Amino acid sequence: MEIAMRQFAFSLFTLFCLFAGAATVNAAESARAPLILAVHPYLPSAEIQQRFAPLAEYLGQQLGRQVQVRVGRDYEQHIDTVGLNSVDIAFMGPASYVKMTARYGVKPLLARIEIKGKPILSGYIITSANSALRNLSDLRGKRFAFVDPDSTMGTIVPRYVMQQAGVGLKQLGAYQHLGGHKDVALGVLNGDFDAGAVKSEVYDELAPRGLRVLVKLPDVSEHLFVTRADLPAKQVKLLRQALLQLKSAPNGPAILRAINKEMTAMAPVADADYNSLRKLQRAVEAKPE
What we know:
Structural class: alpha/beta
Radius of gyration: 24 Å
Shape: globular
CATH architecture of the largest domain: 3-Layer(aba) Sandwich
Distance between the termini: 80 Å
Mean pLDDT: 91
Number of strands: 13
Number of helices: 10
Strand content: 15-25%
Order of helices and strands: HEHEHEHEEEEHEHEHEEEHHEH
Low-confidence stretches: 22-29
CATH superfamily of the largest domain: Periplasmic binding protein-like II
Helix content: 40-55%
């Protein structure tokens, strides 16, 4: 009996060592695995990969761990992926962030971007340069192009402004949600739509081809970076410091300009910075048509 008990105890000890060793290996592999930087598809996927690659390399150097860029299929998937802690770091549009926090709660915040020295996102309702449209009321019965339903300047803010002018979705002749801001601008340029909504960056790029502003949209707090809820506090701190100090890094200005030609820095961010957008978004949701 004593021999049998010793053999049983030895077997248990062996199994414990095997499980402990496997757990250690898994933890080590997890620590070496690349961190995922998720970005919503506000531009074509290949262009986003190119724009964010320098930032991913910089963050990887600061953390001593590879960072990979992953572009979401659409805004809704991006919101859920971030909310469910399925990615490590995320770049989010303001409206997507507001929707994500309402559904899943606040995540650790890192920084928001600055454009021309200000952490403010701007956009326009646009039309073609030779269009007869002169004000919002002229949009009645016209064809309108939005971006994704969760796009800040491509859908949420313009819908609010149009509602305030008495032009809801039912008053439009037709409307469509397109893949990104450039798709909207090109759709207006090609004559597929009478008007559309885009953020200022895209308008500034494509306006010389024959676009003009119909209405300037209200400014809101800019895009921001967040992390998954369970990312170790030390890594969150390092990421926040790396982003806030980016403009002073040797290649910092070039990394910023790769994302947006007019990006000048990363700024501190707080959840309350998006409260005004929350009010605006609730007004839009209260009148879905």
